[in-house]
């Protein structure tokens, strides 16, 4: 018995020490392409259903993957078909993903300038449902989020526009505009022009917009008539360079995946910015692009673009680490 107790006690003391140090550890929940480290699967976003199961669109296969954290093996439950546009095959490159209150699943696609929908009943391992057009006119469609009234908000990337469309879908209308801006990365060559990326609402219904280019988070007060106020720069910090997906934890802290820095950063309701985790190109964070909380655990999609702190020593690839995967952290 003692043999058992001593290691358990050691683990317990170790866990307490790491909690006291305030540095919860990131680990890998699942490698989405165990046979490869070379972008044979590409996931840019992640969401969860009411049962805490995770969903990610894979840009390479067009599959919408389901991963149950209790038994983390990816299975396809939906499909996003490529289209022929002007005689060329165009991949959907699914990005932002979110459920509405009815349990239907939505995925933004920049190349189609649309948001697609798979009905909840059609999310099926035996017969994966095909995503159909829900919202149009969303140029650069990237992050998506629903408000409490069931309106869908869609970020437009470099244009800085955030679109809004009602619960029935249709043509989306621009409602917010973040001023355009382009940042040069430390390599002096790469440029980052995305100013409207990850979207999230807080409990009071205020909209937050991740500005990847400025390394900032904007706050937009929504008015009772459905119109939006002027965006206010809420937090800006070099730690936020590459700010991509965002999500609130149970304590009301905003978590930010700083993709090009391979880092997780939090912003308190007072606007204090703090780095929670960061690593080099070998992971476990590999260009983290989105985060979703299930209870106290944050699940993170590793997009694994070869850029800045996620680039291998050769300066061209991102083969270090395990590649496309879901990371997890329990603060
Ligand atoms: Ca892999
Ligand atoms: Ca990698």
List the helices and strands and how they pair.
Layout lengths: L1 H20 L5 E5 L15 E2 L5 E4 L5 E6 L2 E9 L3 E3 L2 E3 L3 E6 L5 E5 L4 E5 L10 E2 L1 E5 L7 E3 L5 E4 L5 E5 L4 E2 L1 E5 L5 E2 L6 E2 L6 E3 L5 E5 L4 E5 L11 E5 L6 E6 L5 E5 L4 E5 L5 E6 L9 E7 L2 E6 L22 E5 L2
Parallel strand pairs: 5-11, 12-16
Antiparallel strand pairs: 1-30, 2-3, 3-4, 4-5, 6-7, 8-9, 9-10, 10-12, 13-14, 14-15, 15-17, 18-19, 20-21, 21-22, 22-23, 24-25, 25-26, 26-27, 28-29, 29-30
The structure holds calcium ion (CA) (2 copies).
Name the shape in a single word.
globular
Q: How much is the radius of gyration in Å?
A: 19 Å
Low confidence ranges: 1-20
Strand order of the largest sheet: 2-3-4-5-11
Mean pLDDT: 93
Classify the helix fraction into a percent range.
under 10%
* Number of beta strands: 30
Largest sheet: 5 strands, mixed
What key attributes describe this structure?
331 residues, mainly beta, 5-stranded mixed β-sheet, 41% strand, disordered N terminus, binds calcium ion
Description of the structure:
The protein is mostly beta strands and 331 residues long. 6% of the residues lie in helices and 41% in strands. The protein starts with a helix and ends with a strand. Strands 2-3-4-5-11 form a 5-stranded mixed β-sheet, with no helix packed on it. It has a 5-stranded mixed β-sheet with strand order 8-9-10-12-16, with no helix packed on it. A 4-stranded antiparallel β-sheet has the order 1-30-29-28, with no helix packed on it. The model is unreliable at 1-20 (pLDDT under 50). It has 1 helix and 30 strands. β20 (199-201) and β21 form a beta hairpin. The structure holds calcium ion (CA) (2 copies). One calcium ion binds at residues 37, 286, 304, 318-321, 323.
